[in-house]
Amino acid sequence: MAFSLATPALAQIGGPVTGTPSNPITTPGSADELELMKALNGGRIAGRVSIPDAQSASLIQPEGREWRDFHNKTLTWVGGIAVLGMLAILAIFYLSKGRIRIDAGPAGRTIKRFNGFERAAHWMTATSFVVLGLSGLNLTFGRYLLLPIIGPEAFTAVSLWGKIAHNYLAFPFTLGIVLLFLVWVKDNIPNKVDVAWFKAGGGLLGRGHNHPESGRFNGGQKMVFWITVLGGALVAASGYILIFPFAVTDIAGMQLAHIVHGVLSVLMVAAMIAHIYIGSVGMEGAFDAMGSGEVDLNWAKEHHSLWVEEEMAKARETIGGPAGAKAAGAD
């Protein structure tokens, strides 16, 4: 590559560099470079190239140092606080409250909560996100946590395959977000019931039978839905900018995309850790919703009472028709 400093860059120097290196070991070339950097005062160094890639004309980009500081320092702190903070909160909650049980005990009867298509879309999005999250966290924390444990060769292999998986799983993750939005948006519009649900702490903070009313999705689940849809859309969009460099923006735009991608991703990881906790070890009967699609009737009545009433009304209409529904309502 033929590279020569452009006239504007030379104009910033104010004349030829003639300084003599103070260190006798320093070569004239390195001395000239030090004088040049000092004259530029940390500014941009641009030139001309004879190859088609015009981006190569930027030899030094000051914003790159700012981006590097963000990735190595700021993002590490933000991610560490978000992820470790959420884990600490959940640990304290579990130690103080234990697993949330079905107050009335299992009913032995189930009600259909999610069909096969809904569960397939959920698991496609979820499994993609888990791999994306782990491979992304490795890029931020791997050199500090994983490298000392498994060594450089294994860490290189893990990082390489993680990068490949990260790039390709972006597509099913994006598709999953679109499908979940289309299927569930009608049930995730916030309303007054959700305000009451949050005021009651979702029934998680009180003692005893303190379960606020909610529809098919409660206020917390709606919040997770919109975090997934809106946050996931921004993460996906910024990720595609990085997967296809210079397709829609320059290097400054890609650095901004990385900042958005990194911050939103670690915040989403923290939110999904809470979602996974509640849907597995944190609450009895919750996993069945996305496991078999059938949930215990008492669990549904306690956590989604308004939805159960709607489903029961639909069942009466289906079985008895209009007359049957009228009679059931009279009961």
UniProtKB/TrEMBL annotation:
Signal peptide: none annotated. One of its GO terms (cellular component) is plasma membrane. It is found in: Cell membrane. Keywords: Cell membrane, Electron transport, Heme, Iron, Membrane, Metal-binding, Transmembrane, Transmembrane helix, Transport. SUPFAM superfamilies: Transmembrane di-heme cytochromes (SSF81342). The keyword Electron transport applies. One of its GO terms (molecular function) is electron transfer activity. It comes from the Bacteria. Its main location: membrane. The chain crosses the membrane at residues 75-95, 168-185, 223-244, 256-278. Residues 113-290 form the Cytochrome b561 bacterial/Ni-hydrogenase domain. Its cofactor is heme. It is a multi-pass membrane protein. This is Formate dehydrogenase subunit gamma.
